[in-house]
Specification:
It comes from Roseomonas indoligenes. This is Heme-binding protein. InterPro entries: GlcG_carb_metab_protein, PduO/GlcC-like, PduO/GlcC-like_sf. With about 150 residues, this protein is an alpha+beta fold. The protein has one domain: Haem-degrading domain (Beta-Lactamase), CATH 3.30.450.150. Helices cover about 45% and strands about 20% of the residues. It has 5 helices and 5 strands, in the order αββαααββαβ. A 5-stranded antiparallel sheet has the order 2-1-4-3-5. Helix 3 crosses helix 4. The longest helix is centred in the first third of the chain and has 17 residues. The protein is globular and about 50 Å long. The N and C termini lie far apart (about 50 Å).
Length: about 150
């Protein structure tokens, strides 16, 4: 069709997002984690993909979204956000308020970076302990050929 909008770049492709969610869920099964929800946001912070395993509780999609959204909001992985929440609770409370309560500053929110370091989006996983959720997110991002930024330098 002529006259279709063109030129929009949203970072993570649909194929990459599908790889991320499928691999993150498979990693959750491999690690025998509780049922997981995986959310992928693109570079504009918009929802690109979401999958919720059978057995997930009611708020898991919102929590997974909040982990990814918080990472996108400040440009740090969830581990750095958690450190900042401890060190600067007033600022992080204000940040959460500005984000409409949609920022969850804990591990499991992982930035997705291109080889040049630019941010392509973020992944949020919720369902098990935050550290375990993060393992699933990282596996998904790496399977898509991208770089996971958890907020740790190591």
């Amino acid at each position: 069709m002529p006259n279709q909008p063109t030129g929009f770049q949203h970072g993570i492709t649909l194929q990459q997002a599908q790889t991320i969610v499928a691999t993150a869920l498979a990693e959750g099964r491999r690690l025998e984690l509780a049922p997981l929800t995986v959310v992928v946001l693109d570079a504009t912070g918009q929802l690109k993909a979401v999958l919720k395993e059978d057995g997930c509780s009611l708020m898991r999609p919102a929590i997974a979204h909040g982990k990814a959204y918080g990472a996108m909001g400040l440009g740090f992985g969830g581990r750095e956000l958690a450190r900042r929440a401890q060190a600067m609770p007033g600022f992080m409370n204000a940040f959460s308020d500005l984000a409409g309560g949609s920022a969850v500053p804990v591990p499991g929110g992982v930035l997705v970076r291109a080889p040049d370091g630019s941010i392509l989006g973020a992944v949020g996983v919720s369902g098990d302990a935050s550290d375990k959720d993060e393992l699933a997110a990282v596996a998904g991002i790496q399977a898509a050929g991208l770089t996971a930024d958890t907020g740790d330098t190591a």
